[in-house]
Amino acid sequence: MAALLLLGAIVVLALFLALRPLRVDSPATSSARALLRLDTALGATVEPVDRATAGMLGVQSSERSLVVTSVASNGPAATAGLRVGDVIEEIGGRPAGDFRETAGLASAEPLSIRRGGKETILNVQLAEGSGG
Fold first, then answer.
1. 77: alpha, beta or left? (left if phi > 0; alpha if psi -120 to 50)
2. Is 2 helix (H, G, I), strand (E, B) or coil?
């Protein structure tokens, strides 16, 4: 009897999971969606530099800069030499924090970064299909 109840519960659960509508969540704001597109294009995860992060990295707090929080091992960012902790100040001559501008990026863009207090320029070949 207990085995029959257990089997019935499993069947009901399987039906529930199979028949419920599939819901795909996306980032809520346009800047979050644009930042996700930039992450994909770079092959790295970046986040805006807030006051706390700026203090840890020893840079000025700027909403127009992005900090690299992870780098995909075989992505464009890794190939160009981008590292976790780098602060991206400009992408293609424009402030990096202007996420909405990433839709117009070319397939290759220079990144102005700050690493260890020094400014460096890296040329990044963006992921296929990510540019404007």
1. alpha
2. helix
- Give the pLDDT of residue 128: 63
Cα dihedral sign for 37, 82, 67, 96?
A: negative
pTM as predicted: 0.70
Q: What is the mean pLDDT of the chain?
A: 80
What's 88's domain CATH number?
A: 2.30.42.10
Q: List the end-to-end C-alpha distance of the chain, in Å, as a whole number.
A: 63
Percentage of residues of the chain with pLDDT beyond 70: 81
- Give the span between the Cα atoms of 55 and 39, in whole angstroms: 23
In the predicted structure, residue 130 carries a pLDDT above the cut 60: no
User: What's the angle, vertex CA 106, arms to CA 100 and CA 108, rounded to 5?
Assistant: 120
7 assigned to some structural domain: no
The dihedrals phi and psi of 63, each to the nearest 5 degrees, come to -70, -5
